[in-house]
Q: What sequence folds into this?
């Protein structure tokens, strides 16, 4: 009897050891799987970052500080002329027709972004017009930013508006481009090609717009509480002086997800050519009195 009990006890002990070992082995496998999945996620994150960096490197061939210096000179040049004779649009509200671009359009942000990435021309340099879609649209040398963003919006599905009234090109409720010749100005509305007129039109035709003071956006924490929370790919941004007069127009084309707290918004533009350039690099270098307008396109 004792011998039988001893055998049973030994068997139970062996069984419990086996269960314990199997449990330990199971836990080890779970930990291994968790570690493998963690590494896979880290690898995916790194690959995404590498792809984005590879894309950014086309723009980063030109030192960021050099670009910022040129951009600030552009700001100075445009604003120095703002009180001189500049084209103005006819904004007499009694003539505004009932056509609204947003209400008649279906905006595809991805299509707008794809166009911006295809035709920004940054691979040819900051000022080159190679890579522009000049078979379809005109080129306004050194002042092509609004023209380019209008093209992006059109590619995203925003419908052109052209009334039958005379001088439609200077009317506030028209937005169109019917010529590839930049000198044929009556076939290209001011709202399509001129920053101030673009602003007037899209304030009335976007889903909504928000104006930020640069002083509220030029630290990482402030940037994330304002522009980062507001901007989506396909939205339009204008940089303005303290009076709210715009001097540059760009379109949001990507995000830079940082492992810490420095997530950034990336934009593309003409004059100067940029692809997925840092928005934060710009706002942190602008005067605190300047403003940034974000247009939510739908």
A:
């Amino acid at each position: 009897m004792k011998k039988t009990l001893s055998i049973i006890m030994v068997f139970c002990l062996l069984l419990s050891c086996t269960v314990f070992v199997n449990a330990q082995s199971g836990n080890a496998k779970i930990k291994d799987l968790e570690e493998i999945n963690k590494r896979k996620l880290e690898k995916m994150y790194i690959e995404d970052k590498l792809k984005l960096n590879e894309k950014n490197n086309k723009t980063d061939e030109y030192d960021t500080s050099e670009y910022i210096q040129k951009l600030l000179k552009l700001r100075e040049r445009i604003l120095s002329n703002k009180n001189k004779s500049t084209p103005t649009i006819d904004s007499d509200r009694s003539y505004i027709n009932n056509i609204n671009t947003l209400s008649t359009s279906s905006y595809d942000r991805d299509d707008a972004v794809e166009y911006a990435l295809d035709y920004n021309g940054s691979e040819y340099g900051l000022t080159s017009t190679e890579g522009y879609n000049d078979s379809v649209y005109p080129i306004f040398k050194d002042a092509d930013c609004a023209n380019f963003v209008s093209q992006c919006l059109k590619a995203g599905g925003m419908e052109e508006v052209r009334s039958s009234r005379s001088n439609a090109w200077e009317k506030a409720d028209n937005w169109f481009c019917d010529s590839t010749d930049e000198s044929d100005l009556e076939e290209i509305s001011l709202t399509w090609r001129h920053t101030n007129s673009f602003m007037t039109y899209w304030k009335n035709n976007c889903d909504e717009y928000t104006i930020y003071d640069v002083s509220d956006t030029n630290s990482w924490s402030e940037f994330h509480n304002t522009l980062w929370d507001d901007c989506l790919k396909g939205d339009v941004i204008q940089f303005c002086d303290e009076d709210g007069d715009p001097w540059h127009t760009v379109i949001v084309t990507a995000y830079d997800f940082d492992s810490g707290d420095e997530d950034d918004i990336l934009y593309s533009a003409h004059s100067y050519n940029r692809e997925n350039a840092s928005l934060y690099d710009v706002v942190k270098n602008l005067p605190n009195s300047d403003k940034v307008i974000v247009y939510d396109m739908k």
